[in-house]
């Protein structure tokens, strides 16, 4: 049945996936990065420039912004003093705030339209998982890989956002798949397809620049394990064709702006590229240097075959990685991070079914040793993504691992390729896949805050991770609904981790006096005012951050500014990330009855 009807099953799974993504796109309020991405996409289309949000490729933003441009949106490209809370090199965040303010509540409708436009990126990922899984291990394995992708909490969470995360994963998997097909059946045509796919992946996220090094390594390994004599010279020429075509596609995507500029003509911001005496872990408030370590060297005279905005984006991303950022893991705050952060986050955020499938597939490598070179086409790119992300563990977020997700889903199905005890492996794999789907649906539509059962589930995962891996300001609509039903609950103090959404949603609220004073020891001595509090879990757990007050001014919240909330029992929870508290006039921190 599975082999005869696998296409119908695939279409059904994809249809369910699209409905789930659309539901999340409608229910979730704008997250931290989305207005900036949308503003940058509008800038690309309106002005033909790519300097905004240059840390990632423009393709996903252009796709998201196109329908918004068609229906019309008010934009203002002058900087607002209230909005410019990032560095001058990341002005897209100021433009995003301005875009949201100028369009008011209509912005949410436009953002939903942009989110729906990005859903095909996730569908592409499902199709590639199916095709590659089927080619490697049979149609049943292909359908299993597609199901794992379509019901994975992280895919559902990011597949409905205006960010490059899902597009980068899908196009990166497409590039690796077409390269694997070329290795199996080399020809100029398949090399051309692989090159175009690679270039498209670069237009989504600069992470995939790693393939310039990974693919030649895979070719050498493939040839060394080949049982037949291969035309080595022709294969290497076709490899060069792929890399050339990928570079050409990348340049065309940027309209060839700044291509072939000498390396010494750039003004770099990162310590690695601007200063030969490399420094890392600098404070976020430190003055950012500008320079070029290659100036006056022979390398500085070399023309760079990439667009200038692409190079500037890599430099800015590296500068961000070198900057101290607050992080949280298992109740511990740190500005330096942990080398093992990604291992722990995967343990908490990945469904247990996927973790078990990964362990099974890894343990079965010896039984599949004759297919090792096929396995490496999945494992080497994924491992490189993980290694690059782990090198920057002091600026960590699970979305930096996301490009490896589809490769991981396909690898999870590899035990189905074994002929010995095939029925056992099939039943076990499908049982674990069903467990993944059930775990994911139990958290729906709060997939962005998903944590597995080991971590305590979606409502207890904040004990282990918060920040961008849990709370991105996605539950503001639930706060608006609660406020509408409980208008008599006054005064309402809001500590919202995210954009200026409470004011945009016209929620009547105040800001605690503790936030309005200069940070310091005296700040914590100010008692909490009596009233109702809507607090993001980010601040409940003592997280460092910035928030907008009731006048739209940006306020700095140091670590542990509100320690009382961790000791209090919330009245209710809104979505997965906002807790409602009531503080009595006696400040005894006991809760009252829940309002209707």
The coarse overall form would be: globular
Low-confidence stretches: 80-86, 588-596
How many whole angstroms does the radius of gyration measure? 25 Å
How far is it from the N-terminal to the C-terminal residue, by CA?
52 Å
Average of per-residue pLDDT values? 90
Q: Main beta sheet, described? A: 4 strands, mixed
- Tell me the β content: 5-15%
Question: How many H/I helical runs?
Answer: 24
Give the strand tally.
8
Overall SS class: mainly alpha
Order of strands in the sheet with most strands: 3-4-8-7
The percentage helix is 40-55%
Concise structural overview:
The chain is mainly α and 596 residues long. It has helices spanning 6-27, 34-47, 59-71, 92-103, 106-137, 139-151, 153-158, 165-184, 188-202, 211-224, 232-253, 271-274, 308-322, 341-349, 352-363, 372-391, 405-411, 422-443, 476-485, 501-504, 513-516, 521-525, 537-540, 564-567; strands at residues 327-329, 332-334, 492-495, 531-536, 545-548, 554-557, 572-574, 578-583.
Question: What does this protein structure show overall?
Answer:
This protein has 596 residues and is mainly alpha-helical. Among the domains are: 121-161 and 336-468, no CATH class; 262-329, no CATH class; 475-583, no CATH class. The protein has 24 helices and 8 strands. The chain has helices at 6-27, 34-47, 59-71, 92-103, 106-137, 139-151, 153-158, 165-184, 188-202, 211-224, 232-253, 271-274, 308-322, 341-349, 352-363, 372-391, 405-411, 422-443, 476-485, 501-504, 513-516, 521-525, 537-540, 564-567; strands at 327-329, 332-334, 492-495, 531-536, 545-548, 554-557, 572-574, 578-583. The strands form 3 sheets. A 4-stranded mixed sheet has the order 3-4-8-7. Strands 1-2 form a two-stranded antiparallel sheet. A two-stranded antiparallel sheet has the order 5-6. Strand 5 and strand 6 (554-557) form a beta hairpin. Helix 2 packs across helix 4 and helix 15 packs antiparallel against helix 18. The chain is globular, with a radius of gyration of 25 Å.
């Amino acid at each position: 049945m599975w082999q005869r009807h696998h296409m119908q099953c695939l279409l059904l799974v994809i249809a369910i996936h699209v409905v789930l993504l659309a539901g999340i796109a409608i229910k979730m309020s704008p997250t931290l990065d989305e207005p900036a991405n949308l503003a940058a996409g509008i800038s690309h289309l309106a002005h033909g420039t790519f300097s905004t949000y240059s840390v990632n490729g423009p393709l996903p933003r252009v796709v998201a912004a196109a329908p918004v441009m068609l229906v019309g949106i008010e934009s203002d490209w002058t900087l607002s003093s209230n909005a410019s809370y990032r560095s001058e090199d990341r002005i897209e965040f100021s433009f995003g705030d301005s875009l949201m303010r100028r369009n008011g509540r209509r912005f949410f409708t436009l953002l939903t339209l942009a989110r729906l436009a990005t859903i095909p990126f996730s569908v592409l990922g499902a199709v590639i998982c199916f095709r590659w899984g089927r080619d490697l291990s049979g149609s049943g394995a292909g359908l299993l890989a597609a199901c794992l992708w379509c019901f994975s909490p992280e895919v559902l969470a990011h597949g409905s956002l205006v960010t490059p995360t899902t597009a980068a994963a899908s196009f990166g998997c497409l590039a690796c798949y077409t390269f694997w097909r070329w290795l199996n059946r080399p020809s100029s045509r398949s090399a051309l397809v692989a090159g175009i796919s690679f270039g498209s992946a670069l237009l989504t996220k600069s992470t995939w620049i790693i393939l310039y090094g990974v693919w030649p390594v895979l070719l050498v390994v493939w040839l060394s394990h080949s049982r037949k004599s291969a035309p080595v010279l022709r294969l290497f020429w076709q490899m060069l064709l792929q890399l050339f075509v990928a570079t050409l596609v990348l340049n065309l995507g940027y309209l060839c702006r700044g291509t072939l500029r000498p390396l010494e003509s750039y003004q770099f911001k990162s310590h690695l590229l601007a200063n030969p005496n490399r420094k890392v872990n600098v404070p976020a408030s430190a003055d950012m240097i500008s320079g070029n370590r290659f100036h006056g060297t022979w390398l500085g005279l070399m023309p760079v075959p990439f667009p200038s905005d692409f190079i500037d984006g890599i430099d800015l991303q590296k500068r961000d990685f070198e900057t101290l950022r607050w992080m949280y893991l298992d109740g511990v705050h740190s500005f330096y991070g942990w080398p093992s952060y990604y291992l722990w986050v995967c343990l908490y955020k990945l469904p247990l079914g996927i973790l078990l499938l990964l362990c099974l597939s890894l343990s079965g490598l010896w039984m599949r040793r004759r297919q090792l070179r096929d396995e490496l086409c999945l494992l080497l790119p994924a491992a490189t993504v993980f290694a690059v992300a782990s090198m920057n563990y002091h600026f960590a977020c699970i979305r930096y691992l996301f490009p490896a997700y589809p490769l991981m889903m396909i690898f999870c199905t590899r035990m189905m390729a074994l002929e010995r005890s095939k029925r056992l492996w099939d039943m076990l794999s499908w049982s674990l896949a069903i467990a993944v789907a059930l775990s994911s649906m139990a958290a729906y539509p709060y997939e962005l805050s998903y944590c597995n059962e080991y971590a305590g589930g979606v409502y207890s995962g904040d004990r282990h991770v918060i920040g961008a891996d849990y709370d991105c300001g996605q539950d503001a609509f639930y706060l608006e609904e609660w406020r509408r039903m409980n208008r008599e609950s006054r005064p309402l103090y809001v500590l919202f981790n995210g954009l200026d959404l409470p004011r945009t949603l016209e929620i009547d609220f105040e800001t605690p006096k503790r936030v309005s004073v200069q940070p310091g020891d005296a700040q914590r001595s100010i008692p909490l005012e009596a009233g109702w509090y809507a607090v993001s879990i980010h601040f409940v757990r003592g997280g460092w951050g910035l928030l907008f007050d009731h006048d739209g001014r940006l306020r700095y919240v140091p670590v542990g500014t509100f320690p009382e909330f961790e000791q209090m029992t919330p009245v209710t929870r809104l979505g997965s990330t906002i807790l409602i508290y009531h503080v009595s006039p006696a400040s005894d921190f006991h809760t009252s009855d829940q309002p209707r």
